[in-house]
Amino acid sequence: MFDPTTLNPTLTYSTGKGLGFGNETLLQNHELCTKETCDLSMARYSYLPSLLGNATYLAIFAILIFPQILMGMRYGIWKYMLAMISGLVLEAIGYSGRILLYYDPFDNDAFLLNFIALTIGPAFFATAIYLCLGRVVLAYGEDVSRFRPRTYTIFFCLCDFGPLIMESAGVTIVSTSHTEKQTRIGKNIEMAGLISQVIALVLFATAATDFAIRARKAKSTWDERYQSVVKTPIFKAFLTSLGIATLTIFTRSIYRIIELSGGFTGSLFTGYEPIFMVFETFMIIIACTCLTVWHPALAFGDVWHQLNFDDGTEGPPKKMDEESGDEESQIGEKSVRVSIEEIGDAESQLGEKNVRVSMEKHGMRIQPS
């Protein structure tokens, strides 16, 4: 097996004693380091990612994209659809990177593909959750809530946007760093983003719990127009699914904070794929399944748009009655034009008849045409 220290005895590797920048040099030349020639301790992960496991996860996230597209387009829930699809695509990309690492664990591009996509992806699922709370408040009745529905949506989406920016900045710095100091700065920024995400999830859970308690105590003030919706089993299942998705994303974020606290050479980051699968993969799969199977379109139906308080960009495709109304308008215009033309023809024929009668009265012969 190739010993890279013969090239430079001062090289260090990601074995827990510090970031191996000699390893970075080797990773840029695949002829020097492959899984046949170099030990896995020199790679980003000290294990080969599971091919079957990661291919299965890739398939799950890819499959979940299709019902999100179908439901989003059918009911016109565009913002929720875009948030979910963005997260699912990133998850699929991340596990594609892990599959590539199975074939070449020293491929730095594959590592970055996996690391960046799986770090950022869950933030979009949190956004999808936050988009639902305002509609839930309106369904029960705005008087029940401590805050205006729009306030919930704007506040928590901004709370999610901040962590997303920090996480993106952190992974960008890490992916382009050439020194241990740069890597540490990037890691700290990424951790700050994850911590902010955890705080936002805690605040969201607190606000949702507060509203649930107030709604339970004030059933007499519920909006009568939507009681047939909020009392259905599917709506209650939808609320439960939001709670489960929030809890699983929260658990995943706590795990990533603990993982990164040990650094990119820590044993938790580099050495235990089963733990990664439990606290990263399974948590996000549970969240995405809940947010897809109990889609808000199934819980609200067309009432989702009656509860609209945004800029009016949400909405289903044009209904048949709207199209028929347009057709009736066109038919009406056509009828008016036809009537005018018929009147003109009738007047013309009447004029010709009068002329004919007048000529006959004066003894003038009319030649047949």
Strand content: under 5%
Helix/sheet category: mainly alpha
- Topology-level CATH name of the largest domain: Rhopdopsin 7-helix transmembrane proteins
The total of helices stands at: 13
| Morphology | elongated
Overall domain count: 2
Query: Strand tally, please?
Result: 0
Question: Could you tell me the radius of gyration in angstroms?
Answer: 33 Å
User: For the record, what CATH class of the largest domain applies?
Assistant: Mainly Alpha
How does CATH name the architecture of the largest domain?
A: Up-down Bundle
Give me the strand/helix succession: HHHHHHHHHHHHH
Task: Give the helix proportion (percent range).
Answer: over 70%
What summary fits the major beta sheet?
none
* First-residue to last-residue Cα separation: 110 Å
The stretches of 5 or more residues where confidence is low (pLDDT under 50) are: 1-22, 318-324
Mean pLDDT: 82
Structure, explained:
- With 369 residues, the protein is an all-alpha fold.
- It has 2 domains: 13-42, no CATH class; 51-306, Rhopdopsin 7-helix transmembrane proteins.
- It has 13 helices and no strands.
- Helix 4 runs antiparallel to helix 8 and helix 4 runs parallel beside helix 10 (273-293).
- It is elongated, with a radius of gyration of 33 Å.
- Mean pLDDT is 82; it is low at 1-22 and 318-324.
- It is a multi-pass membrane protein.
- Its main location: membrane.
- One of its GO terms (cellular component) is plasma membrane.
